[in-house]
């Protein structure tokens, strides 16, 4: 009798917990089976509430892109219904938001979502497709920021997603998708930020798993003609990922990561690519006349995007931690998020002895030539805060930003007798501001000076906050390189002294 009573008690609490979970989460259904005119039908039940009205939002911007994407432009036929099927009044406020009246009685909301791009061969606003959704019978590249939204009044609640899909399709993602039945996948996330941070590639699977240190790495590939190609890409990526692990101190800050790669064949010569990083995955889109271009191109992009697991995904400011998808406030530290990430991408291969000194010098030269296309007197912190308005200057974070990272690395090595560089700085920042934490945007430079050397504060004052000419010639000379500011050529100094050799050894292990 006691056993029966316990059973019913447990059943009661389990049923109650499930009901409460259902009532206090967004319950979404996304239909990938019944596509009409390249549009997906999306519907959801809002969380239980007592609101007279609510503002529903689809993102204007997403982390990683510093431009207005306006994902609401792809939404149509937005409608709300009560439990009897009667329509409830909704108003479209602007491109990315709707007012839903009598929200407490809304049982269901539905709408149509068009794809953000039809082909990588078309002009897609600078190929900014990796944040959008691609819809086709044989493949879906899904970013949930273009499919799902949230009410501003209920913006930190869980999501439960049902995906209706082809029975042969596999969900490649860093999330754990559960097969409910042959044509339905389900998964849950704790909030909207986590949902947007986890894209998925749906198609007949061409996947390979590799183990790198503590991390399980998924490589998922799609091309209409080419099958069984993920293994080749995985073999190419494995070497660079192992070197990145070593570069990051021997342990990766993730346990699972997914590379989602869409490749489109083209008759045009050359290669076009786009990528967007996430906490545990990267979306990579490519278009070229030959798949032979892909491995080398992918390694470059994948390396950069993978390094984003450090910045900004593990080290970031309050503006990124509490990201406003409709009206974001930008951080002033793009020098860290993009510049230092790009620097790590070119520094890691020489530090890990994957390339020669001459090859490394050529990579630095490419950055010096690249920054000539921009206004190098601008304050990087001001430019970062106004990145949306100054798209004409944004790409300089990958050019001058990487070179500022190089100079900062050498300056730190010099001040510490070779013991501390940007690698060690990043480890210290990760320890203090890891996942779920954030730094004060205005205090970061002082924090770095406090955890390294007070003298380094003037570097940030002069070159990040100010627009002083980058001290590249001076810094390279300290490590035995000669930089000609006229020709932009970089060569090794003949007969470098012991101090230069020691600092170079500490800097690039050469």
Automatic annotation (TrEMBL):
The residue ranges of the Peptidase M61 catalytic domain are 299-404
May I ask which residue range the UniProt record assigns to the signal sequence?
1-19
Q: Which residues form the Peptidase M61 N-terminal domain?
A: 27-202
List the Gene3D superfamilies.
2.60.40.3650, Neutral Protease Domain 2 (1.10.390.10)
Determine if Zinc is one of this entry's keywords: no
Alphabetical UniProt keywords: Hydrolase, Metalloprotease, Protease, Signal
InterPro entries the record matches: Peptidase_M4/M1_CTD_sf, Peptidase_M61_catalytic, Peptidase_M61_N
- Which SUPFAM superfamilies does the record match to this protein? Metalloproteases ('zincins'), catalytic domain
Q: Name one GO molecular function term.
A: metallopeptidase activity
Top-rank taxon = Bacteria
GO terms of biological process kind: proteolysis
The protein's name: Predicted metalloprotease, contains C-terminal PDZ domain
């Amino acid at each position: 009798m006691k056993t029966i009573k316990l059973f019913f008690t447990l059943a009661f609490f389990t049923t109650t917990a499930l009901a409460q979970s259902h009532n206090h989460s967004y319950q979404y259904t996304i239909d990938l089976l019944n596509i009409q005119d390249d549009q997906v039908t999306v519907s959801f039940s809002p969380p239980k509430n007592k609101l007279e009205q609510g503002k529903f939002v689809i993102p204007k911007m997403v982390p990683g892109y510093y431009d207005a994407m306006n994902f609401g432009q792809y939404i149509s036929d937005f409608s709300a219904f009560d439990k009897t099927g009667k329509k409830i009044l909704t108003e479209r406020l602007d491109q990315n938001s709707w007012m839903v009246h009598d929200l407490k009685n809304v049982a269901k909301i539905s709408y149509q979502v068009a794809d953000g791009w039809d082909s990588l061969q078309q002009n897609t606003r600078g190929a900014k497709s990796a944040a959008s959704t691609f819809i086709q019978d044989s493949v879906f590249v899904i970013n949930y920021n273009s499919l799902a939204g949230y009410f501003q009044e209920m913006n930190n609640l869980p999501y439960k997603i049902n995906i209706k899909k082809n029975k042969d399709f596999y969900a490649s993602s860093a999330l754990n998708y559960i097969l409910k039945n042959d044509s339905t996948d389900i998964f849950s996330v704790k909030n909207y930020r986590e949902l947007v941070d986890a894209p998925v590639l749906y198609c007949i699977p061409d996947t390979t798993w590799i183990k790198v240190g503590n991390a399980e790495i998924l490589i998922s590939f799609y091309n209409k003609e080419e099958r069984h190609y993920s293994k080749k890409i995985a073999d190419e990526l494995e070497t660079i990922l192992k070197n990145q692990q070593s570069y990051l101190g021997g342990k990766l800050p993730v346990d699972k990561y997914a590379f989602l790669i869409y490749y489109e064949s083209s008759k045009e010569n050359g290669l076009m690519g786009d990528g967007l990083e996430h906490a545990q995955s990267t979306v990579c889109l490519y278009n070229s006349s030959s798949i032979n271009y892909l491995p080398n191109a992918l390694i470059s992009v994948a390396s950069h995007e993978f390094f984003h697991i450090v910045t900004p995904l593990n080290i970031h400011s309050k503006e990124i931690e509490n990201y406003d998808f409709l009206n974001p406030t930008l951080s002033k530290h793009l020098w860290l998020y993009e510049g230092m990430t790009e620097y790590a991408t070119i520094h890691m291969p020489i530090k890990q002895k994957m390339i020669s000194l001459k090859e490394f010098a050529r990579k630095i030269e490419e950055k010096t030539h690249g920054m000539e296309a921009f206004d190098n007197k601008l304050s990087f912190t001001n430019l970062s805060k106004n990145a949306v308005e100054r798209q004409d200057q944004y790409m300089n974070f990958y050019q001058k930003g990487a070179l500022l990272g190089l100079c900062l690395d050498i300056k730190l090595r010099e001040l510490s007798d070779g013991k501390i560089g940007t690698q060690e700085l990043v480890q210290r920042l990760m320890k203090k501001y890891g996942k779920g934490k954030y730094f004060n945007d205005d205090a970061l430079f002082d924090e770095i000076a406090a955890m390294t050397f007070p003298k380094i504060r003037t570097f940030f004052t002069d070159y990040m906050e100010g627009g002083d000419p980058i001290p590249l010639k001076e810094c390279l000379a300290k490590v035995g390189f000669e930089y000609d500011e006229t020709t932009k050529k970089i060569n090794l100094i003949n007969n470098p002294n012991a101090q230069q050799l020691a600092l170079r050894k500490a800097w690039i292990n050469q």
